Amino acid sequence: MSGRGVRGAQVEATRAAILDAAERLFAEHGVHTVSNRQISIAAGQGNTAAVGYHFGTKTDLVRAIAGRHAKAIAEIRDRVLAEAGDFTCVRDWAACTVRPVTEHMAALGSPSWFARFNAQVSADPALFEVMMNEDDLVSASREQLRNVLDRFLPDLPHQVTAVRVLMARHLIVQMCVETERALAEGSATARLNWEDTASDLAEAITALWEAPVTRRPGDVAGK
């Protein structure tokens, strides 16, 4: 390998170490309480300015962490959709929505930190937008899934759809947190695996989407 190749490999290894350390620290302590210095030390970097040198701002660092997971999930989603064929019910759609996430989580092994990192980022409006943008950039198949849902639930009001999208996403995020934590800690609930989590989530999300709309958008509360 040439000197330039060795240098490139060293840079990539340093960046990966920083991303791994930042993801874990953000998951454990929250994004805004962790300093670049702490991340550099946890990544084994003698230069405590390494984070800023390689990634820029903290938002850029979050974007880089989100981006590498979004790419992996998108690749699984493309494969899952290709294998699924034609959808026959909302449950089929829900399974294809959930499985790319849980398969990715399973592939990370244990302990992993992505679910808890995701939850921390999702609690911050600005960082949540960064996370969603990264997913949209690498996954055209998300639009395909949206179109399938419209086919099954064509009369669902737009406002209700928007609310249920958020509900489903938060359900996926938080249940992945619970499974990730249980597996990492070896707690009593660790008997659940990612396949079980996917199945339970698909059933719950199906019930969420098929629930009747008892209050029309625009109704005044209490009437």
TrEMBL record:
<protein>
    <submittedName>
        <fullName>TetR family transcriptional regulator</fullName>
    </submittedName>
</protein>
<dbReference type="GO" id="GO:0003700">
    <property type="term" value="F:DNA-binding transcription factor activity"/>
</dbReference>
<dbReference type="GO" id="GO:0000976">
    <property type="term" value="F:transcription cis-regulatory region binding"/>
</dbReference>
<feature type="domain" description="HTH tetR-type">
    <location>
        <begin position="18"/>
        <end position="65"/>
    </location>
</feature>
<keyword id="KW-0238">DNA-binding</keyword>
<keyword id="KW-0804">Transcription</keyword>
<dbReference type="Pfam" id="PF00440">
    <property type="entry name" value="TetR_N"/>
</dbReference>
<keyword id="KW-0805">Transcription regulation</keyword>
<dbReference type="InterPro" id="IPR009057">
    <property type="entry name" value="Homeodomain-like_sf"/>
</dbReference>
<dbReference type="InterPro" id="IPR001647">
    <property type="entry name" value="HTH_TetR"/>
</dbReference>
<dbReference type="InterPro" id="IPR050109">
    <property type="entry name" value="HTH-type_TetR-like_transc_reg"/>
</dbReference>
